[in-house]
Amino acid sequence: MADQSSNNISPTNLSENDDIKLIIGEKEKHFDIMYEILTKKHFPNDPMTKSIGATSNEASNLYHEIIDRDLEIPYSVLAFINDKCIGCCLNYIITNVQKTEENPISTFNNEFAQDIHTKGSKIKVVFDEIERDYGFFIPECNELLKIDILFVDPEYKGLNGFRCVREIHFNSFLDCGQRIFRRRLADESETINLMFLKINESMPDPKMQS
């Protein structure tokens, strides 16, 4: 049984003696932990799913798909303090980045009613669009570490050094002429972004959006 005192850890009472461990995610050991954290903490606090008005069933199906795929290989990382998981980075390796000469920005169509009907999920439609033909922005990249979910307990904050190559304003996503994002996001964000991080200095920089 987990130590109940670990559930009371917060940034205000962290000390130098607290043991923060990074663990490689394993499906058999961590699937249930990740599913519970994402459905109970990520979903209720995620501004994007709130603005879309996504149902818990939509989010549940998406989380299940991501966790099932990403924990299949040893690249996802979970952060623990004692028995409490305070964050995770769920990702996987893409070894066949599809090349394309077609700039997805120039072929953007903001009516997604048919896609929403076909896929049955507004969240999936939004993510699929921002990632569509992403190979255009990294033409010399053959292998990619794709981060699906980077989550930190709401009480914690972090920084990133990613470069944005494409952004789409939330108002551009329509369902039968009506905005998919129905209310302002809690974090004041106005766009969904496609970002890359160069982890090897010998790699070329991603193409910037024009």
Automatic annotation (TrEMBL):
GO terms for molecular function: N-acetyltransferase activity. It comes from the Eukaryota. This is Uncharacterized protein. It comes from Panagrolaimus davidi.
